[in-house]
Design goal:
Order of helices and strands: HEEEHHEH
Number of helices: 4
Helix content: 40-55%
Largest sheet: 4 strands, mixed
Structural class: alpha+beta
Shape: globular
Oligomer: single chain
Radius of gyration: 14 Å
Distance between the termini: 27 Å
Number of strands: 4
Length: about 120
């Protein structure tokens, strides 16, 4: 399996994003929150950082890069659990600048919480 984050995996549809935040459920592993919603397409993932918490664009962009990289390295956890028809949004909710180790460990934790919740329901 290739560890990539291709164009077809990215959550870009404004309609789907709005529906995700209106009807979706979430799991958290501070400083990350994963909002998810079942939809008919393949797995779509997006990342977001609040402008309220990070005023400078360079800080937001850096955190988004860290989130995408952590997802890319850990997406096999989702694919192995056959979670293929969900829209996911990974949000960074803290006000502190993270390092990659923190983001990576918390991404693993939030993905495992999500897969456990999905398999139990």
């Amino acid at each position: 399996m290739k560890l990539t984050y291709n164009k077809h995996e990215k959550l870009k549809s404004q309609k789907t994003i709005e529906q995700l935040f209106l009807e979706g459920q979430s799991v958290s592993a501070y400083p990350l929150r994963l909002v998810y919603l079942k939809h008919g397409e393949s797995l779509k993932v997006g990342v977001s950082v609040s402008k309220r918490n990070f005023k400078r664009a360079v800080d937001r962009i850096r955190i988004k890069r860290l989130l995408r990289e952590a997802y890319r390295l850990n997406k096999s956890m989702l694919i192995n659990n056959e979670v293929s028809d969900y829209a996911l949004m990974i949000l960074y909710i803290s006000k502190d600048m993270p390092d990659f180790e923190l983001v990576n460990t918390k991404t693993k934790k939030v993905i495992s919480k999500f897969t456990d919740f999905i398999s139990n329901s």
